Amino acid sequence: MPASAMDWLRYFAVVMLPAAAIAYLCGCFNGAVIVSKYILRDDIRTHGSGNAGLTNFYRTFGGFLTLVVILTDVLKAVAALLLAGLLMGAPFGQYWAALFCLLGHMFPCMFHFKGGKGILSGGTIAIMIDWRVAVVVWGGFLLLVILTRYVSLGSLWAGASFPFISWYCYPYPAVVVLAFVIGALIVWQHRANIQRLLHGTENKFQLHKKTE
Question: Of 57, 77, 84, 91, which sits 20 to 30 A from 182 (CA to CA)?
Fold first, then answer.
């Protein structure tokens, strides 16, 4: 790692900024928007919750193309973290790339900064970072969704638990700060869901049935 302030500045400019830019651009490839807008010719952001995420896409369209959305959002997270891992090393490089990949997913520059909430990509990131992080994030998510059928409740667990399990696994200040920012972003993106949960108006997950 860089030893002096000048070395850190050079490292930031030559390594960290390019890694952040690449991770952000990877994140911008939003599967739900790409499939709905350019294949189905029906922008997902005009349906349901208006969110460009997997759950809203599945509720609205269902079908085989849901798998394309999943694959897109998984692969972009894999690409972002693999590249950052090569450039910057783990775990800091992975958390750095994770932050900017999720920012790209949530606020894609090519889609008017209106994207998804980052759960599928975030779940992929958890798996790539550490199996212990993945067990806590995914375990709680799946348990809550199975028990309550509220995907948003599981998603809130994922966002809230991510920084704490990251802190346990990697107690390094820079990593912990990045983990808390990532977790806060995910929770913030679900603020409307929190309101609906509190008022009992949140939609429960169910197998998609195509309406006529």
Answer: 57
Handedness of CA 167, 170, 176, 182 (dihedral sign): negative
Q: What is the pTM of this model?
A: 0.89
Residue in 186, 53, 56, 173 with CA at minimum distance from that of residue 126: 186
DSSP assigned state of 205: P
Lowest mean pLDDT among 5-14, 65-74, 203-212: 203-212
Read off the pLDDT of residues 142-164 as tens digits, 9 standing for 90 and up: 999 999 999 999 999 999 999 99
What is the tens place of the pLDDT at every residue in 6-19?
A: 888 888 888 899 99
Count Cβ neighbours within 10 Å for each residue of 112-126 and write b for 16 or more, e otherwise: eeebbbbbbbbbbbb
Residue 109, both tokens: 């520059």
Tokens 């809550």, residue located? 144
Judge contact between 145 and 153, C-beta under 8 A.
Answer: yes
* 3-state secondary structure at position 40: coil
Task: Name the token pair of 12.
Answer: 């930031």
